[in-house]
Specification:
The protein is 25% helix and 31% strand. By secondary structure, it is α+β, with helices and mostly antiparallel strands.
Length: 294
């Protein structure tokens, strides 16, 4: 059964001595708001980690087999036309280049098949109007950019290796390149789950629980030297009684505040330097608060 409740949530994570989301247009420097100096992590980056968590945890790495309905559409080295073709073959519908079937029912069946079989389409939506056309889906789960609580400082490090590629370079200096890290930053992102859109894509309570699980564990399956230590810190979920919602999301988000425990001018270097408070007094009628990471 699809979702019957709207959800809005606040998600905190931090990074220590790493680059949480490099900007390819800026030499892979950590993304930053140039006016305020606050660090940024894109919604696309967070969705990528959610997809990776599900693929790694739910599918056999050799056979690539896993539970029905949890395939990942946008994944490493995926050929989207090939994945779209699966829907046509399963439903025995003839494909025309770049066109959906003229029969509206067949067109809906193709899109529905993709939603039923691919978690990320069911959750985030997808534009599947490639050469093998399966339509478009607007997903119920949407994320904002994550923004650091305070301005970040980017450090630049020279890195070296003791080996060389070619014999002619054996006597040369071993400087290999540079990497960039943030000493420490706490990030906050907002998320929205639209129950009306969930009813269209089939996103259900099992999918919702899997999403919370991914937000809790996705950094543990995404370790790399470049990203340093990334850790989920808190997930505050506002559940609405109705599918359309019982209060504006921004009013609910304002109830979640982040403050430094100490007023000193020293830079934050751990999560213990912050205090996250949730105002639960006089909640709007029909709103309850969940904390799935606790």
């Amino acid at each position: 059964m699809s979702l019957q409740n709207r959800y809005d949530f606040v998600y905190y994570f931090d990074v220590r001595d790493g680059n949480p989301n490099g900007d390819p247009d800026a030499g892979n420097l950590p993304r930053v708001d140039p006016e305020s100096g606050h660090g940024l992590v894109t919604d696309v980056c967070l969705k990528r980690k959610i997809r990776n968590f599900i693929e790694i945890n739910k599918f056999d790495p050799i056979t690539e087999q896993g539970p029905a309905g949890l395939k990942i559409y946008v994944r490493d080295k995926a050929v989207l036309n090939r994945q779209n073709t699966e829907a046509y073959e399963a439903l025995k519908i003839k494909s025309e280049p770049k066109k959906l079937p003229k029969d509206e029912q067949k067109s809906r069946e193709l899109t529905d098949w993709m939603c039923q079989n691919f978690f990320d389409i069911r959750a985030f939506g997808a534009v599947m109007t490639t050469e093998v056309n399966c339509g478009q889906v607007r997903g119920p789960v949407q994320l904002t950019f994550a923004r650091s609580i305070e301005p970040i400082v980017t450090l630049e490090h020279s890195i070296t290796r003791c080996a060389v590629t070619n014999e002619k370079d054996v006597d040369k200096e071993r400087t290999m390149g540079r990497k960039f890290t943030i000493p420490y930053a706490l990030y906050r992102a907002h998320g929205f789950i639209n129950a009306r859109l969930a009813q269209k894509t089939g996103f259900n309570n099992d999918d919702l629980n899997l999403l919370w699980e991914a937000l809790s564990g996705m950094f543990d399956v995404d370790r790399s030297a470049a990203r340093g230590e990334m850790t989920p810190r808190r997930l505050v979920v506002f559940k609405h009684e109705s599918d359309l919602g019982n209060a504006p999301a921004h009013r609910l988000f304002e109830r979640v505040t982040t403050n430094r425990k100490s007023q000193s001018d020293s830079a934050a270097r751990s999560f213990d330097d912050y205090e996250i408070a949730v105002n639960q007094a006089d909640l709007p009628q029909g709103i309850s608060i969940l904390e799935p990471l606790n």
